[in-house]
Amino acid sequence: MSLVEKTFCAEICIFEEKGIMIIERTPNEIIFRFPGNMNLDDLQDLTDLFEYKELTKKSKTSQKDVDDLVKTIKKGRWEKSKQQLD
User: Which distant-in-sequence residues (6+ apart) come within 8 Å of 11 by Cβ?
Assistant: First the structure.
C-alpha cells in the first residue's frame, strides 16, 4: 500500500490511502484514523508493534543477544514441561 500525500504544509501533513486510513502529523503528535469497522485484533497488533518500537528504540542489545535469550528461555520451558510430563 502506498500512501498518497493529500495535503502538506509546515505544520500539518495529511496522508490518505483511498479513504481506508488517514495519517495526520501535527506539531505535537501523529494521528492515525481507521474506519470504524476495522478488526480490533489488527489494531491491537499495530499498537503492540508501536509500543515495542518505542520501548526498544534506545536499546543497544544485539539480535544475537535476543536470540540467545530466547534459546535459553525455550530450553528452560522445555525442561519444565518435560518434568511435568514424566
Answer: 26, 27
On whether residue 25 sits in a domain, the answer given is yes
**CB contact at 8 A, 16 and 4:** yes
What is the pLDDT confidence band of residue 19, given thresholds at 50, 70 and 90?
A: low
- Tell me if 54 is assigned to some domain: no
Residue 5 CA to residue 21 CA, distance in Å, equals: 12
Q: Which domain holds residue 11?
A: 4-46+59-85
Summarised one tens digit per residue, pLDDT across range 60-83 is: 888 899 899 888 888 877 777 777
pTM for this predicted structure: 0.49
Query: Hunting for cell 493529500 — which residue is that?
Result: 6
How many domains in the chain? 1
